[in-house]
Amino acid sequence: MRILFFYLCFALILVGCKTEVDNSANEAFEANSKTVLANLEGFQNENLDYSMYAKEFSLLETAFGAEKDSITLDEMIANDKQMWETFDFKMLTYPPVLLPGVNADTKMPDGSVRHYSVWEVTMPETDSTEAKTGAFKLYESFDFDADGKILTQQVYGDFTGLMMYLTSNN
């Protein structure tokens, strides 16, 4: 009987010491992934819903020779409008594989979202030029605030090479 009592007490101690698993980073990643997919869909359809961005948003400038280290939401909206007037965008790897990001300091998952993708960019034909299309690989990262709004975005790809190709006369 003592042995049975001992095992019962031991089992209660094990169950009582079990810690709860913190799944908040995974839950945030799942919610934020939906925002990223809506963002990518909106961008390629030229109707991006900018309400998914935080007021304090910044897009990190990753281009060679950039004059500033980041741009604001208003500057990004103006840039997007200009890009859509000039080029057509299509993600060739849609839907992309979304990857969970980590906090740079703690190296722990934080609900941020990253993806690698391939984009096709077309400069439509005009009266004096034929249409021209190029594809390029892209890496993009989205960090979110506590309300699930995009706080920081960074994009890495050879935009300069693509633009030189699309706008050349060859």
Protein topology:
Layout (H helix, E strand, L loop, with lengths): L1 H16 L6 H21 L8 E8 L9 E2 L1 H14 L1 E4 L6 E5 L6 E15 L8 E13 L5 E8 L1 H9 L3
Parallel strand pairs: 1-7
Antiparallel strand pairs: 1-2, 3-5, 4-5, 5-6, 6-7
Describe the structure.
The chain is α+β, with helices and mostly antiparallel strands and 170 residues long. The chain has a single domain (23-167), classed as Nuclear Transport Factor 2, Chain: A. The protein has four helices and seven strands. Strand 4 (98-102) and strand 5 form a beta hairpin. The longest helix has 21 residues, at 24-44. The model has no long low-confidence stretch (mean pLDDT 90).
Short recap of the structure:
The chain is an alpha+beta fold and 170 residues long. It has 4 helices and 7 strands.
Low-confidence stretches: none
* Helix content percent band: 25-40%
Structural class category: alpha+beta
CATH class: Alpha Beta
Shape: elongated
The CATH topology is given as Nuclear Transport Factor 2, Chain: A
Considering the chains and any ligands shown, give keywords for the structure.
single chain, 7-stranded mixed beta sheet, 7 strands, alpha+beta, 170 residues, Nuclear Transport Factor 2, Chain: A
